[in-house]
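Risk register update: the risk that structure generation would not scale has been downgraded. Supporting records follow, first protein first.
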Amino acid sequence: MRLIVVLAWLIALAFVAFPGSPATNASRTTENSASQRARVAVEPSLITQEQVEGWLKFWQQRLGLVEWTIDAKIVRVWELPAGAVANIHWSLPKRKATIKVLHSADSNLRQDAISRDTELSVVHELVHLSMAKLPLDPNHTELEEEAVKKLSAALLALYYSEPAHTEVAAAAVNSR
C-alpha cells in the first residue's frame, strides 16, 4: 500500500516537475537490422552481467519488489522489440519477471553514457513492473510509458543527488 502511495506521489511530482515531455528520445532507440545481425562478431560489452544484476538487486529492493524473482539479461538488438533498448516480461501469479537490456555494441550512445543509460533501463522496467497491478488502458499505453519515463528519470536523479550513493551501490553489488 505504501508503495502505491509513493508511486502515485512520484507520478504527480513527475508531471509537475517535468510538464513537457519530448516526443521520443531517438538517441535511446535502436534499429533491428539484418546488417547488424550479420556483423555479430563477439564484441565485448561495456557493461557486465554483474553490473546489471547489481543495479537490479539494488533497485528491486528500493522499489519494494523483493518478493519477485527477477532475472536480467544483456541481449543483442534483434532480441528486443524494434526501437527498444530494454523490455520486461512478467507473470503476476508467479511473481517472476525477466528484464532484457541492450548490449553496448548495439547502442547509439557515446560510450561514456551507456552505463548510466543501462541502469536507467533497469529502473524503467522495474517501474513498469511495480505498476503491473494497476488497471491501465491497453489502448493508451503511451500515457503509461510517459509516466514510467518520468518516474525512472526522477528516481535516478534523486538517487544520484544523494551524497552517499556510491557506497550504497557498491554494497549492493558486493553483497551478492
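Supporting record for the second protein:
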Amino acid sequence: MLGLKNRMETVAQKAVSDVLAESGHCACQRCHDDTMALVLNQLPSRYYRASSDPAVEADELEARYLPQARSLADEAAVTVHKAPRHDTDESYQLMNYSVQIVESSFADILPLTKACLCAVCVADMVSYALDQLDCKYVCTTRGAAFTQLEELRAEPDPHRLSVFFQAIAYVNRNRRHKQDVEQNPIAEQNENQSTRH
C-alpha cells in the first residue's frame, strides 16, 4: 500500500455525522459507513500521500464541497434508513475498491514504461489516476467481491488506460522526489537511465 488518503473522506465524515445527528436516523457504525459509501461514490476524490500535510487544501475542499456533501448525505441517510444492515453479522470495512484496481493496474503497467519507480512518483501517479476515475466505495466483503467480479467481466476500458498514461506523463513532467532519489536505488537507476536518453 502507498499510504494514500482521500481528503474528501473528511468532508463526507463531517456531513454524514451532522446529518445523522440531526435526522434521528440510526448512527451505528454500519449505518454510518453505508451512508459514507453512498456519499463518497458521488463526490470527486482528492487523494494525497498520508505523510504530506493536507491541512490547507482540506479547509478549501470543506468550504467548497460541504454543502454538496450534506445534500448527498441527506439522500443517503434516507436510503440507508429504508434498508438498514446493522443487524447482519457480515464483516465490513469502508474502502474504495478503485484504489486496489489502480494500484494493481500500475503494478502491471509501470515496469513496461520508463517512468520513475520511486515511492513518491508512484504514489503521485496513483493519486492522479484516482482523482480522475470514479470511486467505488464499498462496506462489505460481498460488496468488494461484486465490485471485483464486475471488474473481471468488464471490457478493457480505454478511458482508464488513457488516465493511467496521463498520470505517468504528468508525474514525469512534475517530479517531486529529488530528495528521495538517493535513498531508493531503483529510482536512482531509473533517473540515470532517463538522463541518458
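The chain has nine helices and four strands. On this basis the risk owner (M.S.) recommends closing the item.
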